[in-house]
Amino acid sequence: MIATMPAQVVKRRGMSALNEQLKNGPVWVIANNTPKYVVLFADDFRRMRHEAFVNGVLESEAEYRAGLSTPTTVAEIMTAFDE
To answer: Taking the domains of the chain in order of start, what are their residue ranges?
Structure first.
């Protein structure tokens, strides 16, 4: 379960309040009864971004192998944008 914390607590206690919660994973910061922000460690963000990139490449490769896409050149793509 993702931890939540009211924005007022973050404002009052600062990063020390978040650091306690971040030990257990990302923290949703709630403002006006709505999740507004997700706070996580930079290393976790980098890892998630890298995993998303790798998954995108793998999905593209699978689509290509399944014949769902065709090879093209940059010039062909630019021509299509111009049209």
So the answer is: 3-40, 43-82
